[in-house]
Amino acid sequence: MRLESGRCLAALTRITTMEADMNNLTKTCCKIIPFLIISLAGWANVQAAEISSIPRTADGNPDFGGIWQALGNAHYNLEPHAADFPPLPVLGAVGAIPAGLGVVEGETIPYTPAARAQQQTNQADWLTLDPVAKCYMPGIPRANYMPFPLQIVQSPEHIVMAYEFASASRLVYMNRPDFEAPVFSWMGHGRGHFEGDSLVIDVTDQVPDTWLDHAGNHHTDALRVTERYTHMGPNVLMYEATLIDANVYTRPWTIRLPLYRRLDTNMQLLEFKCVEFAEEMMYGHLSKDAETP
């Protein structure tokens, strides 16, 4: 009997302890749940505020109009890189290449072995070979992270993107997915549409001559770029571009970087018609004053 009584007492003790634990848990939940509700409500309010802060056009689509510019050093090299000597020693520290964290998801561009070898050859003599040094239009996506501003003008049928560098520009055809490019071009053929609050542009038919940066990263005429512009607030866009080119890349890859609205007083694109700046480099050997070999 004493053994049975002991077992009953132990069981009652466990039950009492469990009831106390449940009461404590209930009290704790009663304290936490209102906090969670308030937190979730606050998060929802923040999300709603962010959405409402996005500028919109009369038709309700997000408005990307304005003058924007990328910061950082992606125009030197999309991949992570250390600081390096200038291409000409006479430039000293002013012309040195600053380090960069890179903007490639996964850090490394997935080249085929032959394409990586070509990139390294390009980089070894980039000042001579880089198309933008000769004032050629930079192509897409490079035009969007050059150290020059770009301007977006938006309508329901078209989006115009104008670039200060070389006075380049391109026309994006909205909601015309079947409109094929008549010819290859330096800035490609852009067809756009909206996915939620993101502007998505499919860019094809670029000439193979453009590079992606000063480091000689390159492509062929099979390149297809899918751009995505998304408001992160009224003055910041997140820019993403996914590149596909089976001739040189083993898989699709993506870059991601912010574009900032230029808020300068009287901000506007200025002239940078760079042909005259490149003439001596390209054609100086043809001048009358050139040394005869």
Q: Give me the number of helical elements.
A: 4
Q: Sheet with the most strands?
A: 9 strands, mixed, barrel
Contiguous uncertain segments of 5+ residues? 43-50
Radius of gyration: 29 Å
Silhouette: globular
Q: What do the pLDDT scores average to?
A: 87
Strand order of the largest sheet: 1-2-3-4-5-6-7-8-9
Report how far apart the termini are: 121 Å
Description of the molecule:
- The chain is 26% helix and 22% strand.
- The protein is an alpha+beta fold and 293 residues long.
- It folds into two domains: 1-52; 66-278, no CATH class.
- A nine-stranded mixed beta barrel has the order 1-2-3-4-5-6-7-8-9.
- The protein is globular.
- It starts with a helix and ends in a 10-residue tail after the last helix.
- The relative contact order is 0.14.
- The model is unreliable at 43-50 (pLDDT under 50).
